[in-house]
Design goal:
Strand content: over 45%
Strand order of the largest sheet: 37-36-41-40-39-38
Number of strands: 62
CATH class of the domain at 539-668: Mainly Beta
CATH superfamily of the domain at 539-668: YVTN repeat-like/Quinoprotein amine dehydrogenase
Helix content: under 10%
Distance between the termini: 15 Å
Oligomer: single chain
Length: 668
């Protein structure tokens, strides 16, 4: 036998053995939406190319003037990277610079560079700095200036080397929010801080405050030099919008924008119409056509505008105005008079919660956050959604509930249930298409008379704690009165077996309601008789490190799972000790969890989604960087797909396709 034949047959045998060892699975991700999300900053390249950056490091790109978007990549590897500025090299359109600060205090950020149109990124420097502003000198494209919490830094070689150009330890030139560089002289740099603006005319050797005419203690959020006359400078501050005609020596406060809109995030001048400026505020977009003498709001006051860019004018038409808002992208083709949403391909909304109906896991409820909270329902496993009205009847009068005050949503045995920040519960009435207050009442322990009236039934301040669980017929709640079981009517009863439990962390209840497991007072309590009695045992970790608990039954075997800050722990019914779940699952803090019939799914709190198809023995990570985020809800659909609610990537669907093992005749 030739050596090559032996090698080939040996490899074939190994492959066959591997295939016999288990079923191969392929994963496919889909973005279901909703479209939109928070835009932190926009950057414009050549022609109609636009880049969009988010508060978790992702960068999207548009090749058609913001009509559609595609996800390009992530700046760095962290999930808390707020991209504050996107700059495109005028000589190399695929070379992009980004400034970043991390949301975790004390962790810095940096300046990053991409050479392939935002698909991949590398750190250039200032990794210990929270970089809040970044500009390139118009007359010297190799010069970058960065503003950070600690001062002003400059690079003369496109970010390879950086030097501090503001005095180290200076108490004033720090906490930068904005920068501007004179287009004719790169030595002239304006710096806006949390406390008034500063100017250097010699590249940072000397600085002076330029605050004459400005209300003291103003946070300078945006600086803009006039295209046609760089001696004219526009500035936005928390006290309003200002203009200087002499390079900041004196400022005039511009009138016309009311106090409610004075939190102006950004000012942009229209390159095709220099007297037109757009001011993005926390109360909508304001426009001036006369260099700031008068202003008009052209959008809803509910819009929070974070970034603005204007495309070049063409064919006698004004350049397209593109707004980056807290709810997504808006575009205008009539110089900012009217706007239309343009989020196709930009899927970056926050899914705060995702739950499935107890009786039909194709029916879902989702709480999303874009420009305000929204509660939506799907009856086809997430393919389409409709908003649920927040109308209710209280004491015979109509009431409108505020989705922004929803703390939790639940799939109860009686329908959707919402808990609000004020502690109130509201139950969805499908027949009335409205919400009904779910009021909890607890009969007095000494009320023995079966004909008891409301005189001996009290409605104490039953304050429900975090832990809630549902059986097929009722609810189990941790309250200030201990563990109670409640019916649809709101009538509750204490459970004697858990009478001494005070600090209840987690609850798990079987579908028939007889078996109850509770993490409380640094112990695990278990009852198999409706809570009449309970036995207690030690936990593998302190209670404050436990995130969730689940009790599973597979065949005759029962298993308790604990999600913790150090991974997942399990204890089988026939075992007296806890075992740490490994097999490829990291030992860090775990987040959401799902156990379906043939698949277990768990997310890491720091991002990452892991799947096991052998009941926790082995785990595989199934998300890539495009999907990597903090997950807020997991649901198994009737088709076998997994829906994952994300804090940044909206709703994702993971399809797991089983691939049959090949016929033995196919192996040669």
């Amino acid at each position: 036998m030739e050596k090559t034949d032996l090698v080939r047959k040996t490899l074939a045998a190994i492959l066959w053995a591997l295939m016999l060892g288990g079923v191969v699975h392929a994963q496919k991700w889909e973005r279901l939406g909703p479209d939109g999300g928070m835009v932190v900053t926009l950057g414009i390249g050549s022609g109609t190319d636009i880049y969009l950056a988010t508060a978790d490091g992702h960068v999207f790109a548009s090749k058609d003037g913001a009509q559609s978007w595609e996800l390009r990549g992530r700046v760095g590897h962290r999930l808390d990277a707020v991209v504050t500025r996107i700059l495109i090299d005028s000589r190399e359109p695929n070379r992009i610079f980004a400034s970043v600060w991390y949301q975790q205090p004390g962790t810095g950020g940096g300046v990053f560079e991409s050479g392939d149109g935002a698909r991949s990124w590398k750190l250039l420097g200032l990794q210990d700095e929270a970089v809040r502003a970044l500009e390139v000198a118009p007359s010297q494209p190799d010069e970058l200036v960065a503003g950070t919490r600690n001062g002003v830094f400059r690079s003369l070689d496109r970010g390879k080397r950086w030097e501090r150009i503001s005095p180290e330890g200076d108490e004033e030139i720090r906490n930068l929010d904005s920068l501007a560089i004179d287009p004719r002289d790169p030595q002239v740099i304006y710096a806006g801080t949390y406390h008034l603006p500063w100017l250097t005319r010699d590249g940072g050797r000397n600085w002076k405050p330029v605050a004459a005419g400005i209300i003291d203690d103003s946070d300078i959020m945006s600086l803009r030099l006039d295209f046609t006359n760089p001696s004219r400078v526009y500035m936005s501050a928390c006290s309003g919008i200002y203009r200087s005609e002499n390079r900041g020596e004196n400022w005039t406060k511009l009138q016309g924008i009311p106090y409610a809109a004075r939190r102006t995030q950004v000012i942009v001048q229209d390159p095709g119409s220099p007297k037109t400026l757009y001011a993005g505020t926390t109360a909508g977009l304001w426009v001036t056509r006369d260099s700031g003498e008068s202003w008009t709001r052209t959008t809803s006051k509910d819009w929070v505008v974070n970034s603005i860019t204007v495309l070049p004018a063409s064919n006698g038409k004004p350049g397209r105005v593109v707004l980056g808002t807290e709810g997504g992208v808006q575009i205008s083709d009539d110089a900012g008079v009217t706007f239309a949403e343009s989020n196709r391909g930009f899927t970056h909304a926050i899914v705060e919660q995702l739950v499935a109906d107890q009786h039909d896991n194709g029916r879902l409820l989702m709480v999303t956050q874009r420009a305000g909270a929204d509660i939506s329902e799907s009856r086809n496993s997430g393919d389409s959604w409709t908003s649920i009205p927040l109308t209710a009847i209280e004491s015979g009068k109509p009431v409108t509930l505020d989705a922004g005050e929803v703390q939790d949503v639940f799939a109860s045995p009686w329908g959707w249930l919402m808990r609000f920040d004020n502690g109130q519960f509201w139950l969805w009435r499908e027949d009335k298409q409205s919400w009904k207050r779910w009021k909890l009442i607890l009969p007095l322990a000494h009320a023995r008379d079966r004909k008891a009236t409301t005189a001996n039934v009290r409605t104490p301040s039953l304050k429900v704690q975090t832990a809630i669980a549902f059986s097929g017929t009722d609810a189990m709640l941790a309250t200030n009165e201990g563990l109670v079981r409640c019916q649809e009517s709101g009538i509750c009863a204490r459970l004697k077996g858990f009478g001494h439990a005070t600090s209840i962390r987690s609850i798990c209840i079987s579908p028939d309601g007889r078996e109850i497991s509770v993490v409380a007072d640094d112990k695990l309590g278990f009852s198999s008789d409706d809570g009449a009695t309970a036995v207690w045992e030690d936990l593998p970790l302190p209670q404050d490190q436990i995130t969730w608990m689940d009790a599973l039954t597979h065949g005759p075997q029962k298993t308790i799972l604990l999600g913790t800050s150090k991974g997942i722990f399990r204890r089988d019914e026939n075992s007296s000790s806890w075992q740490k779940v490994e097999g490829g699952l990291p030992a860090g803090p775990v987040g959401t969890y799902l156990a379906a019939s043939d698949i277990w799914v768990v997310s890491e709190q720091g991002g990452g989604l892991y799947v096991s198809q052998d009941k926790g023995a082995n785990w595989n990570r199934v998300d890539q960087d495009d999907e990597r985020s903090r997950f807020t809800g997991l649901v198994a659909t009737p088709t076998g797909a997994i829906l994952a609610g994300s804090q940044s990537e909206a709703l994702l669907r993971l399809g797991i396709e089983k691939e049959a093992a090949p016929n033995s005749n196919d192996v040669r």
